[in-house]
Design brief:
3 helices; mainly alpha
């Protein structure tokens, strides 16, 4: 019997992951400031 919730990690990372945030302004602003850590 299969359980109900089987997350698709690849699709989730496209929405929630680092590369999804690359397209928003937040990470670009942090890069312009010259931060060492862009995201935790």
């Amino acid at each position: 019997m299969k359980r109900t919730y089987q997350p698709n990690n690849h699709r989730k990372s496209k929405k929630m992951g680092f590369f999804a945030r690359m397209e928003t302004k937040i990470i670009n602003n942090r890069r312009k400031k010259g931060r060492k850590v862009l995201s935790h």
